[in-house]
Amino acid sequence: MMEVHDGAELCFPQLLNTSCRKPLISWSEVVFLHFLLSTVPALTAALNLLVIISIFHFRQLHQPTNLLLLSLSVSDFIVGLVFMPGEILRKTSCWFLGDIMCSLYKYIITLSLSASLGNMVLISVDRHVAICDPLHYPTRVTVGRTRVCIVLCWISSNLYSSFLLDNDQNQKDKYIYCFGKCVFNIEYTLIIVDVVVNFIAPVTIIVVLYVRVFVVAVSQARAMRSHITAVTLQHSVTVTSRKSELKAARTLGVLVAVFLMCFCPYYCVSFAGPNILRTSYLTFTLCLYCFNSCLNPLIYALFYPWFRRAVKLIVTLQILQPGSREANVL
């Protein structure tokens, strides 16, 4: 039987023995988390929505790499719309939305975070083929194949999220249950499996591919500089194309590097075991993890001129004009 607490400390005072206690956090944490709730989620959702509209609306942007960025933005949009507010709600107050909404929340966030990681792997593969095997890139990486890969990424993320949610439901009987909290009831061994599947394996793939990409990119850049004065007009077009590919690789390299810096701390904490998972340090790493979803569109705005042009057309409502889908934004 659960210990009886003062009613003022309980989420549901009328339930007494079956109610959870209200979260005990410092005033500074409350201010910080409410600041995040009022700014970052809305900014994250808005910026990623601009990316989604840009790539979806303008036909010029219907390219394999941009479709991967579109898929990444969808998962980041869900993070901003659902994950950030939900985490702040769980940390600062009681959960009054019920078990069904709790299960739906856990499913959505695991789906979006897993899909984000899968999209990062696909982006790394895309750049690896574009830089290391440029002659076969147009035939190997087509719009159709990219769409298939994106669908498979979301399907696999859905299956993985369903598996975690099923394990969460099965573990409920092993924990002392109370009303007023939405927690993940996942056994520690499965946390280790999650670290391997959702951290070690994909991060290893991303790092290995990008190390090879930058080695090849550096050698190609040197070759272009040494022969730039001797090329013909036809070769100049090729050189310009290669420069564009190298610039895209550098931009997406920044995207992946920022992702890893925001992504790694959370899973590094997971190695420390169940005790540290309940500390405020986990809250910080989760916020950092989520903040990456807000940074991605800012990286696009900084490095991609097409995104800035597309946003200008969107905010001025020029996309509502007939034929705007064919506008030149590249």
From TrEMBL:
- Bilayer-crossing regions: 31-55, 67-84, 104-125, 146-165, 199-218, 252-273, 279-303
**What are this entry's molecular-function GO terms?**
trace-amine receptor activity
Which keywords does this chain's UniProt record carry?
Answer: Cell membrane, G-protein coupled receptor, Membrane, Receptor, Transducer, Transmembrane, Transmembrane helix
Query: Membrane topology per the record?
Result: Multi-pass membrane protein
Question: Subcellular localization, per the record?
Answer: Cell membrane
- Domain G-protein coupled receptors family 1 profile residue range list: 47-300
PROSITE patterns attached here? G_PROTEIN_RECEP_F1_1, G_PROTEIN_RECEP_F1_2
Q: Where does the source fall among the domains of life?
A: Eukaryota
**CDD domains from the entry?**
7tmA_TAARs
Offer a single GO CC term for the protein: plasma membrane
Cite the PANTHER family for this sequence: HISTAMINE RECEPTOR-RELATED G-PROTEIN COUPLED RECEPTOR, TRACE AMINE ASSOCIATED RECEPTOR 19P-RELATED
Q: Which family does it belong to?
A: Belongs to the G-protein coupled receptor 1 family.
Name it: Trace amine-associated receptor 13c
